[in-house]
Amino acid sequence: MIGSLAAFEIEHQDAALGIVLLREARRALGGHPPPIARAWLSSIEALGHASCGDQVAALAALGEAERAVAAGERHATPPWPWVFPFDYGKLAGYRASVMVRLGRGEDAVTSFTESLASARPSAKQRGVILTEIASARCQAGDLDEAFHLAGEALSIGLTYRSERIMHHVRVFRRNYSGPVTAKVREFDDRLRATLI
User: What is the per-residue pLDDT across 29-51, written as a single tens digit (0 to 9) for each?
Assistant: First the structure.
């Protein structure tokens, strides 16, 4: 539960608090947590450090997550309370989000491709992932594609009435400060209509 709270705080832009909560979660797990717990917590930690702009710590946490995923492959089923394994596909999704936060757009796109090839996300998770890919495309200078993807995420958020997706869409737009093209204006009009 502490790890989930840390992930929530990092996602909602209080990464420093999230990192503190992750330390507490690690203490609660003790000295020999299962590999899946290490992989998950290290992935969240990488996201937190990346959100704070600490590339060295973020990459170190990703390395720890990768070692934990490798160690976890020896277990046939994940231990309770995990229902699904934390595999390389999930790690690739976290790595992609970390790369977006570090401003490494091309690395993010590569990781998103790896992640999406290994797992079919739920519709809501797809909406969140689309905003992350949109951010990566923005960093790579492909504005039309970025705002097209963000528009798809907006549609999914509206369809499912998902506040989480809408939050990600608004953060994507808030972080963009480039030129206002026709595609950007079209997106802004759609986003504004959801607020009225």
Answer: 888 888 999 999 999 999 999 99
Query: In 10 A of CB 7, how many CB atoms?
Result: 21
pTM of the model: 0.81
* Domain end residue (candidates: 119, 151, 177): 119
Q: Which of 104, 119, 134 is the last residue of a domain?
A: 119
Q: Tens digit of pLDDT for each residue in 119-145?
A: 777 788 889 889 999 999 998 889 999
Q: What is the DSSP string of 46-98?
A: HHHHHHTT-HHHHHHHHHHHHHHHHHHTT-SSPPTT--S---HHHHHHHHHHH
Rounded CA-CA distance 192/157 in Å is 14
Look up the domain containing 19 and give its range.
1-119
The angle that helices 88-101 and 105-118 make with each other, rounded to 10 degrees, is 160
Name the maximum alpha-carbon separation found in the chain. 55
Provide the CA 39 distance to its chain's centre, in angstroms. 15
Report the C-alpha gap between 62 and 39 in whole angstroms: 9
DSSP 3-state percent helix, strand, coil across the chain (nearest 5): 75, 0, 25
Q: Which residue has the tokens 């590569």?
A: 110
Six-digit token string for 151: 């528009």
